[in-house]
Amino acid sequence: MPPTAVGTNGDRWSFTVDVTKPDGTHQTLGPITSDPVGNGYTSFTPDSTGNYTFVTTVAAHKITGGDPNGFVPNWGPSSTGYAFVNDTFVSATSDPVTLVVQTESVAQWQSAPLPTNYWDRPISGENREWWTISGNWVESRGYNGASEGYYYKGGGYNPYSTGPTSAHIVWAQPMPGEFGGIMGGDVSQDGGAGSYYTGMSYEQAFAPPLILNGRLYFNDPPGAAPYYGCYCYDLRTGQQIWYQNYTISNGEIYNYISPNQFGGIPYLWSLGSTYKMYDAVTGNLILSFVNAQTGTVAYSDSDGSMLVYITGGTGTNRWFAMWNSSLAIWAAMPNLWSGNNYWLWRPPTGSASLNWSLGIQWNITEPAVTGSPSIQKVDSDVVLCQAKFAQNDGTSIAQDVAYSAKNGMLLWGPINRTAVVMDASVLTGMSDGVYVEYIGETFSFIAYSATNGTQLWGPTQVSPAVGAFAEYGSWRTSWVGNGKVYLPGMDGQVHCMDLYTGKWLWDFTTGSCGFEAGYSNWPLISASFFGGAPNTGGLRIYAVGGHTHLQPMFRGAQLYAVDGNNGSLLWSIDGWFQAGGPVGADGYMVGIDGYTNELTCFGKGNTKTTVDAPMTGVTVGNNVVLRGTVTDQSPGKTCLGMPTAGTPAVSDASMSQWMEYL
Description:
The protein folds into 3 domains: 14-101, no CATH class; 129-602, YVTN repeat-like/Quinoprotein amine dehydrogenase (Methylamine Dehydrogenase, Chain H, 7 Propeller); 607-661, no CATH class. The chain has 4 helices and 44 strands. The N and C termini lie far apart (65 Å). Strands 1, 2, 3, 6 and 7 form a 5-stranded antiparallel sheet that branches. It has a 5-stranded mixed sheet with strand order 8-35-36-37-38.
């Protein structure tokens, strides 16, 4: 190991690899720079069969220095460690290694096929291919809400999970602490036809929610502020695992890698003026950061650290900063530089006064802008901000500016956008280097490059079929991803455009609601999106029918599963699932049905097959009768024990009607 290497500091080795090919010619690979523990690699592709011989040479290296924090390594022949400084490690050459390249393929490990039936957690480490279908839901809007959702009515996104392929209900039970359904009697001007309180429109229960490793986390319903507490349920059974008297806002799976430790550690967070971190397994408090500031949460692509982007100040004194959860914890870890503690992950427990500011990874001065830019989207390397301000003629204008998500440096802007009367432009989504804005006054979309801010296409007007509440429903529920722009709206349609060209692709329509509701079609309040990653079966849209829970609630609302590629209906089922949901992971999807205030989980369930055959010998040529059943063993309404496990299993085509009947 380089004797002064600590983290990103200290010396590194440099080496080359000489390749002798079958024809006797040579090729040099490198130079390759080692990591802190002396390892390094490169790739080589042979161009013919035969013997290839490899010899590695490490270059001579003079040790120049070590860690700026003054850490002295505890290995090597010297007790002081830094006795190595100014010493020279002479060049070294490896023994030759010969490999044989042949035309016959070498037997490879047989990858585990993706499951098509019921499966459970934990997923064996040997089934590594299953990562594409086992993504978690780490915040209210899913996989990475800072890029995938703008407003809580916009639902959420999990690209690393299949969506339910039918309306099969695995379990359903009342939301804890809540009554549901019709009140009955002469309770209001509508009589008892009105329903119990559901939290709609703006006090939804079931927040944030989160799903980590097959566990569902949510805060108790807002019957009074603040929320009562946090519940942890088993996603597949609906069984309560624990309850804690606090509320949460975010999740995190920190993937810590060091020579001593490898792997993910799950946490829950409550953000505010004090950040609190909890153990996701037990729900116990681990630590707190005081004097904190809130901002826009995203997650590190490299290790899953929770990142909080924050803006502040005014005029020429504006600033832009990023807080890193693992950096803050690392700075607070006890005895960090003694022994090999810098190779261990040991968050201090029970502390209520850790210094939040130690987690600020960088803080830069923003360019002067007219308004006060707020963070709208974080996607890959771009943090997109927008300011809105009034002009002298009474119109409003939007000003876009973009920063690097890695170091906060200005990428482009500020750039003024089209002035409008009412709401200026509203950012609806950003994906794959493109972001889209919606102009409510003209019902149109415009797309810009997230790389340089230039306009790519538009304005493209929404289909003329958009009816009442088009402005309201459109920008709050539109979503960008999968190379498309999706718009589930109050007109009862899901509209789809090409993200890169603005070309109109297709429309899905819920159909006429007749005189039951005050809309042309059954309205859509939000949608959630699943799939799109490899092996997830394509993107599926789960559009939520309904609107504000006015009393009495109109009848006939549905949950619609729509193919994200062509807009065809996959399945639907009766239910008024509230905005902001449903959420899902592992092929399961959970939401609250406003008609009953029941948590309802869709997905695959266990089945049981029985066969009844004669237990005695049968003479050749005689007839026999084999009887049996295939039954659904899902918990159903877990808390009531009904429908009893053992109801008949039915085909996907019959599932919606069968589930509604049960």
